[in-house]
């Protein structure tokens, strides 16, 4: 295992889920699509890596499974039945946390320009759940009832709490990370549809994006009251604190814009154009670049992390969904 981890460290890579092509592997030294491998039935979305980078766990919406992929061979070595419409995946302390929706067979995207919530009947659906998978036995050890349409998963900096965003009922649910025991539910602005969530580097705050209201909400990490509300461009989703802790990055997906804010005052600093439906993004391991999975552009967009100037587009990734790197980087899915 240690040898495999060292090999990965010598050749940094990014893994990108493509809902139509499988999993793309990007060589980060050359910024090229090195290879693409399938996990069987198409439809991979959420993804996360184990600590040494030897296993990539992926949510497959078409099979309702969590697939564990050997990153050296690209072969699926474990299948775990999760439930309908699995979407977001986070690995934390040897466990995979997977969101899914028992009342759904698959969730269509909202219509561009449509009214927020116009076609929703979230109140009549069963709530979403989070499956906690032991990555040693590859069994679901807990199923945690959440809110409606659970979207993002984050952990407190001390690792003791799990927070999830529920876009269908405008809440953030807080749990004990290991047991899944509920702690509290934080109600946010009606119709906001919270999606991305990220803990600040000092662990004192959480940044939450409200997609339908085009807002960024900052929560106090002790009692979860709203510290600040910040306007964004249209449709914010992915959110990342920069490695230095001084900048906060938001992907405004509907406006095809990366927005940069001061991570302490939340003043707006800069904007940069990105592709279409760029929900998730990540720094590279050396912190020099930002990489965006842009689903409706069928590509990964690469920007300079300091100047935000475009560097490259890496194509052949139809309906790109999420992106993570090895060695680990700060991103909208994973954090260092």
UniProtKB/TrEMBL annotation:
Q: Which SUPFAM superfamilies match?
A: Nitrous oxide reductase, N-terminal domain
Query: What is this protein's record name?
Result: Uncharacterized protein
UniProt region (Disordered), positions on chain? 100-125
Supply the PANTHER family for this chain: DIHYDRO-HEME D1 DEHYDROGENASE, PROTEIN NIRF
Read off the Pfam families from this record: Lactonase
Q: Which InterPro entries match?
A: Host-pathogen_enzymatic-act, Lactonase_7-beta_prop, N2O_reductase_N, WD40/YVTN_repeat-like_dom_sf, WD40_rpt
């Amino acid at each position: 295992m240690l040898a495999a981890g060292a090999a990965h460290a010598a050749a940094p890579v990014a893994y990108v889920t493509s809902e139509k092509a499988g999993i793309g592997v990007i060589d980060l030294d050359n910024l090229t699509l090195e290879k693409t491998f399938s996990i069987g039935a198409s439809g991979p979305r959420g993804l996360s890596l184990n600590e040494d980078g030897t296993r990539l766990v992926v949510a497959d919406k078409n099979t309702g499974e969590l697939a564990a992929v050997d990153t050296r061979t690209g072969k699926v070595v474990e299948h775990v039945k999760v439930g309908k419409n699995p979407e977001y995946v986070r690995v934390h302390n040897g466990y995979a946390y997977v969101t899914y929706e028992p009342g759904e067979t698959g969730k269509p995207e909202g219509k561009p320009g449509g009214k927020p919530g116009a076609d929703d009947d979230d109140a009549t659906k069963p709530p979403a759940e989070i499956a906690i998978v032991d990555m040693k036995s590859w069994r679901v050890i807990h199923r945690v009832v959440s809110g409606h349409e659970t979207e993002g998963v984050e952990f407190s900096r001390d690792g003791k709490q799990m927070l999830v965003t529920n876009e269908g009922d405008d809440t953030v649910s807080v749990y004990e990370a290991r047991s899944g025991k509920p702690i509290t539910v934080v109600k946010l602005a009606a119709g906001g549809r919270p999606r991305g969530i990220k803990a600040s580097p000092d662990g004192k705050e959480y940044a939450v994006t409200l997609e339908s209201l085009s807002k960024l909400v900052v929560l106090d990490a002790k009692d979860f009251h709203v510290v600040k509300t910040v306007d964004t461009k249209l449709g914010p989703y992915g959110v990342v604190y920069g490695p230095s802790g001084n900048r906060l990055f938001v992907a405004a997906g509907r406006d095809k814009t990366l927005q940069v804010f001061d991570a302490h005052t939340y003043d707006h600093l800069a904007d940069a154009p990105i592709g279409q439906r760029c929900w998730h993004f990540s720094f590279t391991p050396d912190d020099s670049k930002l990489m965006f999975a842009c689903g409706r552009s069928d590509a990964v967009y690469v920007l300079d992390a300091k100047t935000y100037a475009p560097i490259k587009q890496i194509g052949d990734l139809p309906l790109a969904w999420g992106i993570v790197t090895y060695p680990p980087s700060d991103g909208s899915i994973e954090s260092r």
